[in-house]
């Protein structure tokens, strides 16, 4: 059974940085794309970035490109989202997700707050 646990959320000032780890269990490497989504109050959940665990190829939404970096450590079955140059509009609950042909599994989410 796939389980995802996020951590690292918290508060930062505008222009600051945060790093979000997501640790996975029950996954088979090479069959999943790991993603970070976020959802602000009253907004739909949106894709921030994803990475293929096998190839390492990454995708970023336009809103975070050049500021956020997604990376993986396959030995630890962990995925990280390094968030730099944070903006108030980055404030949201961030969710880790594991996507395969079998569907999508979500973590519980971690809150990120950015003050101007």
Please characterize this protein's 3D structure.
By secondary structure, this protein is an all-beta fold. Helices cover 0% and strands 55% of the residues. It contains no helices and eleven strands. The chain has strands spanning 3-6, 10-13, 18-25, 33-39, 46-52, 58-60, 68-73, 78-83, 92-100, 103-106, 110-115. Strands 2, 4, 5, 6, 9, 10 and 11 form a seven-stranded mixed beta sheet that branches. A four-stranded antiparallel beta sheet has the order 1-3-8-7, with no helix packed on it. The chain is globular, with a radius of gyration of 13 Å. It starts with a strand and ends with a strand. The model has no long low-confidence stretch (mean pLDDT 93).
């Amino acid at each position: 059974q796939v389980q995802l646990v996020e951590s690292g959320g918290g508060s930062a000032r505008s222009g600051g940085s945060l790093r979000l780890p997501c640790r996975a269990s029950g996954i088979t490497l090479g069959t999943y794309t790991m993603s970070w989504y976020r959802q602000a109050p009253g907004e739909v959940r949106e894709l921030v970035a994803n990475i293929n665990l096998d190839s390492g190829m990454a995708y970023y939404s336009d809103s975070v490109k050049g500021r956020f970096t997604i990376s993986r450590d396959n030995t630890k079955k962990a995925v990280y989202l390094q968030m730099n140059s944070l903006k108030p509009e980055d404030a949201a609950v961030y969710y880790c997700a594991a996507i395969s042909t079998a569907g999508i599994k979500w973590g519980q989410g971690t809150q990120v707050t950015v003050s101007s």
